[in-house]
Amino acid sequence: MRRPLLCFPILLSTICSASNVLILHEKRDAAPAGFVLSRSAPSDTMLDLRMALKQSDIAGLEQALHAVSTHGNPAYGKHLTSEEVASYTKPSAESIDAATSWLKERNFLHRAVSHAGDWLQFSIPVKKANEYFGANFSVFAHTDTGSEIVRTLEYSLPAELTNHVKVLHPTLSFSPPNVIPEISISKRDHLASRQAPDPTNCIQNPACLQAKYNIPTTSATQSSNTITVTGFQFNNPSVFLTQSFLNFMRPDKTFNVTFGTRYVAGASNSTSQGNSEVSLDMEYVMGLATDVPVTFLGVGPATATPADLPTLLLEGFGVLLNDTNPPQVVSTSYGADESFYTPAISESVCILFMQLGARGVSLLFASGDGGVQTGSSTGVGDNTATCKVFGPTFPSGCPWVTSVGATRNVVEIAAFLSSGGFSNVVPAPSYQAADTAAYVAQLGLTYQGMYNASGRGFPDVSALGLDFQIRDYRFGWQTESGTSASTP
């Protein structure tokens, strides 16, 4: 009779230890350039985490995207509904049950934050996160600003979740103190110029660009056209500034400026002054796309907390994904260095963009203003002649967005500031593989080993990006340059 009694605690111990087995899921050797370890995070610090579940049929979604986007395909132009997209991204019932059961058993309140249920959000104190995920959440400081962020350099998943969870975020992904708009040069030019539209001799303004690129000055006639302009943290548009800009720069037309506004993830219309970035975007979108309805999408609170770009993108673009009638075009002038983020979260955001593409949304992103070496003008990275590896930008490395670079001069050549290159994470997609391979072959041994020759190449297109006149509440009339100017 004693043997069964002795075996029971041994069996129970085996079961308990099996349920607590942790398997390493993501790891980085060190914090990215520009961040240093400061101290351990307080055990009671609350972390707002997202758990991405593995999606059911991403290969099928990619095929559907190619079908609706390819001339001659019977499905061309027959964009998917949000429900049809969700049928490709919805996790299996087993994955949903495994993740939600694990969270419930540990009394973590959670909620689905995506239509397909592939993203779960929950809050957890540092002490529990370290215990349950084999992590070491610590405080890291940004070397230039002293701004602090709580992250870990590795985490594990319970064995019962490894086949169901793709990524926990934010864990290993770092972000600069604020999401960086891709404007690199700003010089005051208080005397605005409304020159005759001679494309061979003009400072950039709507009339000049319309003449240069043969953009119609008449009102758009396609009633279903819509454009969304995004803004992250501290950015709000000004009706007054946009109106005064258009009154001066487009004397050929009478404007009554109105635009829609949407605010998500804690954003609010706390100010109507407008900063340089959002002024540039709204003034040129409305000045060039005459009478096309424009909506401003504000994402993220205006706080001192370092902005996490992937989270802002998931929040903002996730809202657009669920719209019955999403915008045809979304213009975004923000980005960061690809090295800040892990491949898993970069891919997860990129899949969101794939979903929007299948719904018929064209996503334009500024390629960055740091040349080939560093993308987001954060002061991060080695900007000297000792550079040994080029630094691509995120999310321009995603093949489901249109990355926009900057040019200069009458006979256009690349602007010195314009970022471009090859992703270190994403391989070249089929639609550009032959072209990027030919370009790499033409380079020969030049810069060999400094870039990923098999990566997704960007930018996809380029446009003038230097000396754009804008109206800004701080300095009045001034000029701005950067891929932020090229993109809208």
TrEMBL record:
All residue ranges annotated as the Peptidase S53 domain in the record: 203-488
Molecular function terms, GO-annotated: metal ion binding; serine-type endopeptidase activity; tripeptidyl-peptidase activity
One GO biological process term: proteolysis
Cofactor(s) recorded in Swiss-Prot or TrEMBL: Ca(2+)
SMART domains reported in the protein's UniProt record: Pro-kuma_activ
Active-site annotation: 277, 281, 484
Signal peptide: 1-18
GO cellular component terms attached to this protein's record: extracellular region
Record keywords: Calcium, Hydrolase, Metal-binding, Protease, Serine protease, Signal, Zymogen
Cell compartments where the protein resides: Secreted, Extracellular space
Name of the protein described by the UniProt record: Peptidase S8/S53 domain-containing protein
Organism: Mycena metata
